[in-house]
Amino acid sequence: MRKTIHNTLFTGLAVASIGLPLISGGFAEKASAEPSAVSMSNGAYSTSIQAPVIKPSWSFPVIPIDRNQYSNQAVAVAENGKVFAVDPNHRLVALEANSGRKLWQYGDQLTPILIHSNGIIYGMTQSGSIYAVTESGKKVWTTPLGFTKADQIHRIGSTVYITQSEQTAAIDAASGKLKWKISEDKNSYSGLGEIMETDGVLIRNYNVQGSLTFEQINAYDAKTGKKLWDSFRTSFPLAVKDGIVYSVANTFMIDDDPVNHKVTIAQYDLKTGKSKGDRQYRWTEPENKDGVYRSGGVYGSAFLYGKDLYVFQGETLASYDFWNYKPDSKPARKWAQNGYDQLVPLLSIHEGRMFYQDFSTSRLTAMKLSSGQFIHYDGDNPTVQADVFGKGVYVGQSDGVFHGYDLMSLKPVFADNTGSRSFGPTLKSGGMIFIQSGNRLLGVKLPASLK
């Protein structure tokens, strides 16, 4: 039996050929163009989106988006009527959100790794130091770390955490004092993007390489950085409650029954990592006659939203009351997902919609939880970046056109031709959105229907 983890991206290439009559001496001769060995066409983007074109209120140059160098790049952040961005000279600048007017600048040789928390902007320098600046541009502190390729910055309570692959550092948010810095084995660990602190324990996830590579969570003493425990083949926690950590266990190539499937939720003591048993959510499927065993994605993943655990069971999405677990309990609700094997769950719900990415078309897709109806936010070119705020869906396409849609009606509300096929995450503050496109930051005043 062949085994695959369901995360394959399919692409298509359209090739066209045409022959024209040749005229010689007044007579039409038979065309002699060589026939193609392969010919196909793709009408997926043959219909253009019709929407009013609006111009940005302002544009400001910023450092170009480079996902190869900074996988979690944040060229800008928007808060409290201001936008904070890294300009082409690697300085932090503050802009008035409505007008784009420059208010101040700070530093140099800065990187596009930024967060805003409690009125402070935290960022990284090219030399690997972390800095803190107030919203008015006043320096609070700078602390050298040697993290020249930092991935992310997180502020949790009174601590700022910085990650760089297998390394983690903890900084006192008020003083900038280094609390601790640790590193796992760089030959087997590769850091992932999630981190949480609860009841004095810091939990971080990694990919860890053994005979196979799987996700692992490590737990540390938040005060000292001392490692308390780890768990291989375990996803970042769904929840931590009453001293128990709940995480999805990866059973790929351990329990691959082609008919009887299950998602296992492992339970660990927060302080010690000692197993507290597990939960199993089971379902059955007809055996796949092509001999392929599918897992992950729509074929066996789960996430928690409030009290509801959503389990993706192949052709079915099921929800359970997570905090009232009973062995072999039946789902509280079920939705059909058949025919959607190219969907990858984004593990998020907004306005009563479950969101997915369709890898066959690159588009953002949603399912109405009230009816089970699937809806597609179709563009006229492949999607590069998609973000949802309130009642708006904002999509940057590979042709450089940026579209704004009404979330509920799917109606295109506006379009903007940015001139770049590169997009970062869209930002929103008040009645403005800020488009990160190429080496420009564009401020766009939203139409009334999307505010």
UniProtKB/TrEMBL annotation:
Gene3D superfamilies, sorted: YVTN repeat-like/Quinoprotein amine dehydrogenase
InterPro entries to which the protein is assigned, alphabetical: PQQ_b-propeller_rpt (IPR018391), PQQ_rpt_dom (IPR002372), Quinoprotein_ADH-like_sf (IPR011047), WD40/YVTN_repeat-like_dom_sf (IPR015943)
Family matches, as Pfam families: PQQ_2
Domain annotation Pyrrolo-quinoline quinone repeat: ranges: 127-374
Name recorded for this polypeptide: PQQ-binding-like beta-propeller repeat protein
Organism: Paenibacillus polymyxa
